[in-house]
Structures are given as C-alpha cells and as structure tokens.
Amino acid sequence: MKYSRKEFDAIVVGSGPGSATVARELSLNGKKVLILEWGDNDPVKGNFSQTISRGLIPGKGMLVTGQALGMVRGITTGGSSLLYCATAFDPPTAMLKSYGIDITTEIDEVRKDIPNDTLSDELMSPAGERFMESALDLGYNCKKLNKFIYQNKCKPDCQRCLYGCPYGAKWNARNFVNEALENGATIMNHAKVDKVIIEHKKAIGVEYKFGKDYFSAFAPKIIIGAGGIGSPNILRKSGIHGVGYDFFFDPLIYVLGKIKDVKSGRGLSMCSGIHFPEDGIVMTDFNLPHLMKIMFDLEVFKFVQSFSYSNVVPIMIKVRDSLGGRVINDRLIWKRLIESDKHKLNKGAEHAKKILENAGATDVYRSWYLAAHPGGTVKIGEHVNSDLETRFANLYVCDCSVMPEEWGLPPTMTILCLGKRLAKHLLGVKQIADEKRATSAAVKNMPPGEERVPY
Ligand SMILES: Cc1cc2nc3c(=O)[nH]c(=O)nc-3n(C[C@H](O)[C@H](O)[C@H](O)COP(=O)(O)OP(=O)(O)OC[C@H]3O[C@@H](n4cnc5c(N)ncnc54)[C@H](O)[C@@H]3O)c2cc1C
C-alpha cells in the first residue's frame, strides 16, 4: 500500500468510462498507471442484491433530492457503466467544438474499439417491438438505437443487463480497466480519494482513505474521473472552489401500460427510440427487471399493477433539464425539477400514452421521477480548459462532470471520446491541426495553470 514517489506516471481516480479510457490509453502506451477506485471489483453476478450494493444504497449509489427523486450512480469498478443500458448516442460535436474541442477522430477510434450498432431483429424484445411498431404507425420518427453490445454473447431473454451483464455481452468500463491491468496498470479498490495534494500550484499526488486510515500516492499527472458528483467533491477539498453548482442530471419517468398479447416483458432496454431535439425529450422502450418494476410501482402506490409483469410495456421519457442545484457533499445533492422540466416530462408522457394506447394498452400509468446522468459540475470553460486541465498544473478531470452545457442525451460515447483525447494530450500526441483551441471567452479568461511539467 505504500507507493514510492517514482512508481507511477499517472494516478487515475475512479474507473468509470472517463477514467477507464484514460487509464487504458496511457497503459497501452507504456505508462505506469495507478487506478484508485472507491467501489469493489467483485465479479459481476448480474443479480438484484449486487446491484443494491453498487447503485441503490441511499447516500452512496442512490442520492435522493428534496423532491424524493432518486439519482443513481454506480460505485464499483467500471462505475455507472455497470448499471447502464449501453445505448450509444452520438456526441454533441458542435457544442464541444464551440469550446475548442474536436473529437471527430476519437469518435471513429471508439467505434473501432467497441461495438456500436443497432440490434439484430432477434435481439429486439417483444415489448420494444410493439413500442416501435405503434410509434411508426402514428408517424413518429422511431428508430433502432445503437448499442455497446457484443451481440453474439447476448442472451435476449435474460433481463440482467441493468444488473451488469454476467455474460460479457454488455460493454462496460471494466473492459477498459482490464486492458489497462493487462498492460501493467495497478488498481486499488475500496480506496476513496479525499483530495489532491497540491504543491506550488501543481498537483503532485492524492490522499485517499482505505479502511479507517488515510494514505498518499504520488505521480506527475493526476486525472480525476470520479463522476459528476464525486469529482467536484474531490476538487473542492483540493482548493478548487465554485465547482459542483448548476448541474444537470437528465430526469426521467416511465409510462407503463398492459398489452394483452405481449407475452414477455423481458429483454434489452432502450433498443429503439424517438428524439425530439427541439423539446429536449427522448423516449425509448425500457424493459424493467421485475423487482425494479415492483419498486417503481410501489413508489406511486400501484399495488395491483405491481402483480403484472410479462404483458406490461414500459416506455422511458428522459428530458434535458435546466442547469441548477448544487452538490452539497458526496452523499447529498440539492436540485429541484422546475416547471419547465416537469412540462417536458409531461409532454413526453402524453406522447408515450398515445403510443401505448395505439398499441392496445390498458391501465396506463406513470412512475415517479428518477435521474441517472449527473454532469456539468466541473464545466469545460469554467473549471477546466479545453485540455481538461484545472487551474492547478498536472491536474485533469475526465468524466461527465466536464460537460459544459446541459445536453439531455446519454453521455457515455462522449465521455469515451474525451478520455481518448485527454490521453493523447497527456502522451504529447499532437491534436488535429485545424482544431480551434480555447475559443470560448470563458476558456480564455480562465487562470492559466502553473508551469507545465514535461511528461
Ligand atoms: C441505470 C443507468 C442507465 C444508463 N444508461 C445509459 C446508456 O444507455 N447510455 C449512456 O451513454 N449512458 C447511460 N448511463 C449513464 C452512464 O452510465 C454514465 O453517464 C457514465 O457511466 C458516467 O461516466 P463517468 O466516467 O462520468 O462516471 P461514473 O461512471 O459514475 O464513474 C465514476 C467512478 O468513480 C468512482 N468514485 C467516485 N468517487 C470516488 C472517490 N472519491 N475516490 C475513488 N473513486 C471514486 C465511482 O465508484 C465510479 O467507479 C446510464 C446510467 C445509469 C445509472
């Protein structure tokens, strides 16, 4: 546990899509990387009880707002990608370009590294098919969505995707962590990073808690990828104030209806969807694991409905919420859904109701609010520059927290691309020539980091 000062070239905090990508790329290029991860690294069982410990413990994986909205994040190796639906949305390239970030090359690279395709018809669930058929019948522009799924390994009827696929079919950030480990990286689990050690305005190491004790580790580059809630907490304790405010978390609800001749409620989720970019609404099919459905039903007092499962078709409505709120600490967030957010959710729910009723659904009802993509807490242009570096030299952030604006779509593809781009920067690979760096006024006004240390 005692690491000497010269042992590592970089310390990566967290192991979600952002941090795992950086760790993998650096290790593939011969750098010695230490990954410090708060959660476990136990093999994925793909069951509800393991999911509770990773994503549903209040004040840890599940943060609850004053409006009783539960926001989920994964605390385990691979982060929230262990629990995610593996749907790949193209990144907001124009938005990022306006902040001096061009990830077009990285998009192609990620597509070569991991699967990013629509599902074959055999893998579409019966409920998902009904959603798509009905939506198309009503004239909605409903399309199959791209998935990070190794389709040859997928067992469509298993319903364990959200519990962390035990068959290796769902790509998640553990795949990149494992590659990093094969290439010489070290991971330390149950190590919760508290703060970054700063000396003369340069990051030189981190302080972390393991068991009851605190330890330090040192490296010339520190990359924080503890997610939208974890990263601002670490930065604040390290002396970077003003982070953790005005964030988004993409609130969502489910609208559910019973369709007699749909025989199986099991299958992959988010296989097809409709995007209303102007309204900031996205709507998809969403097969819920049985126990999760019961939980959501009971939350809205749908006791009778909680007995039905196989012929219930749930539709998820996720919206682009307004920036607001604050991360109070690692266990507490404050954020309210404002009227415009609720209006979007209601509008989406009306579309979903129409689609379900057109498919023959009865007993249509909706769930309570949830959220799953916290971000924008350490924004590019305010707290990190276009190289994702903070005001302290050698201290970088790479995860959903750096998203500069609310976007409203699942962010994993974007985070993977940002991770690849940051790794190139750290390795000194020249960025694409025509890239306009640091164009936004906010980026220009950021205090420069101290003297950069060659890597
Ligand atoms: C149910 C669900 C479904 C989703 N579906 C999709 C989808 O279909 N498509 C999509 O693109 N996105 C989806 N997402 C969102 C996606 O999973 C996240 O946006 C993504 O994982 C965020 O990556 P990240 O690197 O920012 O952070 P995270 O994945 O949250 O990783 C952060 C890591 O840091 C660790 N950590 C936190 N604090 C500390 C600390 N102090 N010290 C050490 N380690 C720490 C955590 O344990 C975790 O491993 C979904 C999310 C959920 C919860």
Q: What features would you highlight for this structure?
A:
globular, binds flavin-adenine dinucleotide, five-stranded parallel sheet, alpha+beta, disordered C terminus, 455 residues, FAD/NAD(P)-binding domain, Glucose Oxidase, domain 3
Q: How much is the radius of gyration in Å?
A: 21 Å
The CATH topology of the largest domain, please? FAD/NAD(P)-binding domain
| Percent of residues in beta strands | 15-25%
Indicate the structural class.
Answer: alpha+beta
User: How many alpha or pi helices?
Assistant: 11
Describe the model:
The chain is of the alpha+beta class and 455 residues long. It folds into 2 domains: 10-41 and 76-114 and 171-243 and 376-445, FAD/NAD(P)-binding domain, CATH 3.50.50; 121-162 and 249-371, Glucose Oxidase, domain 3. It is 26% helix and 22% strand. It is built from 11 helices and 22 strands. The model is unreliable at 431-455 (pLDDT under 50). It binds flavin-adenine dinucleotide (FAD).
